[in-house]
Amino acid sequence: MEYHKNLMKISLAENLRSLMLRHMFEKITIKQICDATGVIRATFYNYFSDKYDCLNWIVYHDIVENTKDYVESGDFEKALTAALEVLIQNKQFYRIAYHVTGQNSFEDMIRDNLRILVMKFLEKYRKENFLPQYSNELLSRYDAESLAFNIRMFVNEIGGAKSVEETKQMTLDLMKNSFFDFADVKEVK
Predict the structure, then answer these.
(1) pLDDT tier at 189 (50, 70, 90 boundaries)?
(2) pLDDT surpasses 60 at 1
(3) d(CA 109, CA 14)
């Protein structure tokens, strides 16, 4: 039974993804998603509260669920690679999705799901007593901001097209080094 529930959720989400490649998100209706899936509206509402919830689930599935095994094993680099590979496979969809702005903006969905990913990693692998004054919540929000920036650059090819490997390396380089590592000063004033 659970298997069939997951299949229906995936089917609804994939049909929204497909519709977004042909129509503006704002113009897509729940009826269109249901018609493409071959179900009635009530079925949609068994899984999602609205189309924004469905869109957010796609991001969650692509970024968090797709990387959870790597996060669990402590391999953040492979988690990042897996997320970038899904993004490149669905690049046109993600480019279009970035046009969803406002109260339920796509960029917020990306950032919130990246925060979940980073939080899961920190909860399991954070160094004990290393800068304890900064909570995992603060750190996950901070890192999610920078990851979201890199993903937006990657998806929209801002600053020139970069491969998965180049984007992963840039992201890791920036995460491993602080602002002051780039400055030629002897001490912070």
Answers:
(1) low
(2) no
(3) 17
- pLDDT digits 0-9 by tens, 98-130: 999 999 999 999 999 999 999 999 999 999 999
Beta-carbon contacts of 150 under 8 Å, excluding residues fewer than 6 positions away, are 167, 170, 171, 174
8: CB partners within 8 A, 6+ apart: 37, 39, 43, 47
Within 8 A by CB and 6+ apart from 40, the residues are 34
Burial class (CB in 10 A: 0-12, 13-18, 19+), 58: buried
| pLDDT interval class at 188 (50, 70, 90) | low
3-state secondary structure the chain: CHHHHHHHHHHHHHHHHHHHCCCCHHHCCHHHHHHHHCCCHHHHHHHCCCHHHHHHHHHHHHHHHHHHHHHHCCCHHHHHHHHHHHHHHCHHHHHHHCCCCCCCCHHHHHHHHHHHHHHHHHHHHCCCCCCCCCCHHHHHHHHHHHHHHHHHHHHHCCCCCCCHHHHHHHHHHHHHCCHHHCCCCCCCC
